[in-house]
Write a structure and sequence with these properties.
48% of the residues lie in helices and 10% in strands. It is mainly alpha-helical. A three-stranded antiparallel sheet has the order 1-2-3, with helices on one face. A hairpin with a 7-residue loop joins strand 2 and strand 3.
Amino acid sequence: MKTLDEYMAMNYRMEIVEDETEGGYVVSYPELPGCITCGETIDSAVDNARDAKKVWLEAALEDGLEIYEPGSLEDYSGQFKLRIPRSLHRALAEHSKKEGISMNQYCVYLLSRSDTALSK
């Protein structure tokens, strides 16, 4: 089993979300379920998150809970195959040609735009 220092040194993904209702920012670690905190500013929220991570890991180690290690981008190839209707394929090809970019680039643009809108 790893030590607290070993877990603290791991690069867990931190999510920061603005709290539009109460003000400030909410920070969580998706790979550490229930590890969540907040702060008035981004800096204070990040500082609080580091403290929350340490407390969460200490409690998990003490209780003998399984602690998942952070994922890595190396686990993802950046490619996936997608079957779409021919009419959509044509529309995407036409739009990408109009923009002067490849269909792959156009689809990445559309996906990133949609992903940003969904995360708000």
